[in-house]
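Sample intake — Histidine--tRNA ligase
Collected from: Caldovatus sediminis
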Amino acid sequence: MAQPPLQPVRGTRDLIGEEFRRHRAVIETARRISALYGFEEWATPIFEDTRVFARGLGDTSDVVMKEMYTFTDRGGDSITLRPEMTASVCRALVSNSLVQSGLPRKVFYAGPMFRYERPQKGRYRQFHQIGVEVLGAAEPLADAEVIACGWHILQALGVAAGTVLELNTLGDAPSRAAYRAALVAYFSAHRDRLSADSRARLERNPLRILDSKDEGDRRLIADAPTIHDYLTPEAAAFYAAVKRHLDRFGVPYRDNPRIVRGLDYYNHTAFEFVTDRLGAQGTVMAGGRYDGLVEEMGGPPTPAVGWAAGVERLALLLPQAPEAPRPVAVVPVGEAQEGPALDLVQSLRRAGIAAEIAYRGNLRRRMERANRIRARVALILGEEEIAQGVVQLRDLDAGTQERVPLGEVIGRLA
């Protein structure tokens, strides 16, 4: 009995054809725009020592507790497939001894990440992210520039019109301490109405209650205090400077005091680019300032700010898929003409012109393949054309055909 065909693992997918072209367009656009802002691309291993993410994401986060792909390798070490890349970039900064000199570092990255979560539209267990990080800059201008870079990428992709930047501040350490106390007091008064998860968070990390999706929690959160009433003058001035720079960069935004980050090394700016075009999965790019993360990786205190964006979600938002490249088809009339046809196809490729030649078939079958691969032009070589040093150039869109000297073909196609 024949075995059923193997399928991709649940939560993963193949990227083929139009889906791959959308995926590639997002990454290549982000790579190009981030380079305009001075970001250098880094690549880190797909798996890391588990401690990189346990430190970077917090031992109590849902990602660490429920979603990481963690295993013990043959050497007995605990290894985790990366669920995000900010922690990896900070680890790379420290382990490559880059934190001692040459700061700030401006880093762009793109690659696959892994989380064991329920697959849904735009969300997979193997997914892809792009992101930028500025490591070693404490100034609010750095926050504004990474946001401006993200906005520029969204504009270049043609998705900015349906996207809104929501902005908040997490303040400095004294601001957060005062705000934490206010949240504990508020939610403790409503403890019996909190979900079980939020009651546990009340003890460990009350800011994370503000991320709850539970409907009962959401009703309580609507009346919870916001951090803006607890900002120190220094924290308020930092936030005002970020907004001032964003205005200068021409980036529109709106305040959202409910954007939070639960870990202690996050501070000051927190932001999300959101859309209503993807249903419940509305966040397409999110980030903020994380001045304590490099220290968590064993380095010295180092300010940092950045964002990450889901490639799959951005690809869904693209107004249209990039067209597949249209090659030139080189068509020998018979086997005797294959040698000169191969010379021609390679000369086209060396000139930077995509060209294909069918492996087999008569003239009719080779022309059928030229149409199937959506060739824009067919260059037909028969015995007479070779003898006269010409080629029949057929425009497959217009249906016209003309004789062109072989020495002029590349110039005509270019």
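Post-analysis note: Residues 18-36 form the longest helix (19 residues).
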